[in-house]
Amino acid sequence: MIHVVELNEDLEGRFIDYVRRDVFINLPTLYAWRFERSRFKIYIALRGHEVVGAIRIGGAGASLTGVKESAEALIEKIRLKNFRLLCPEDLSEEVLKRFSPRKVVKILLMVLSKGEEKLYGSREVVDLEPSDASEISELLRRSSDWWSDYTDDKILEMFRRGFSWIGIVRGSRICSIGSFRIMRVDPSLPTIAHIANIATDSRYRGRGFATSIISEMLARCFKEADYAILYVEAENEPAIRLYQKIGFKLHREMTFITV
């Protein structure tokens, strides 16, 4: 029988054991528990004394992991009206039974081990600051519907949450960007860098800017991290080819559901 409870200090050790089973998919939730508790609610599914699932809920989003039997009970904790939910593909059926989606997107979780990276940076990359939030959000929204909800405030929030942003500037305009955050959570677990928000203005694509951005982020991240992870739409073949060229490998197929 599955029993759902809010994560607490007494259950943290058991949750870390659960995270260890698939650290690439579960570490962001442990990171949120350790460092962002005011922003997220985290619930875990127990079968006896064993943690078999978890859901992280905050802002306008949720992230679900675990065995199929835990999914139905965990998603009952969602009280949001309009939200996005990320889950492994094998859990998406359970989510879609409960919610009517506006959009369903297949996502790939890709992983790169330190020492296996092939970096190709050749463009001058600069650090971006919170004062650049408006230009960052505008570029993201222009680049893809994926980032249609990225406002200036959301970018500023990401800065506050520890994301670093870098970019390539031509003239006075930012034309290519990316963000990353290093998640060092527990001595028993690897340190993982989350690479995100890689976007290039359509007028500057095909010039190697994205390659330079991701190469610079990895060079910085692997000074501290053991692995890097990123998410990419399964249909974004050019991006997937780029990430594979740099050394990323498919770890797990995911589903991103907009409700």
Account of the 3D structure:
- This protein has 2 domains: 2-100; 111-253, Aminopeptidase.
- Helix content is 31%, strand content 34%.
- It is built from 8 helices and 12 strands.
- The protein has helices at 12-21, 23-35, 68-75, 92-98, 133-143, 152-160, 209-221, 237-246; strands spanning 2-6, 41-47, 50-58, 61-66, 84-88, 103-113, 126-127, 164-170, 173-183, 192-200, 227-233, 249-258.
- The chain has a 12-stranded mixed β-sheet with strand order 1-2-3-4-5-12-6-11-10-9-8-7, with helices on both faces.
- Helix 5 crosses helix 6.
- The two termini are 28 Å apart.
- The mean pLDDT is 95.
Count of strand segments: 12
Count of domains: 2
Instruction: List the uncertain runs.
Output: none
Strand content: 25-35%
Strand order within the widest beta sheet: 1-2-3-4-5-12-6-11-10-9-8-7
- The name of the CATH superfamily of the largest domain reads Gcn5-related N-acetyltransferase (GNAT)
Structural class: alpha+beta
Instruction: Determine the oligomeric state from the structure.
Output: single chain
Summed up, the helix count is 8
The succession of helices and strands, N to C, reads: EHHEEEHEHEEHHEEEHEHE
**Average of the residue pLDDT scores:** 95
Alpha carbon gyration radius: 18 Å
CATH topology of the largest domain: Aminopeptidase
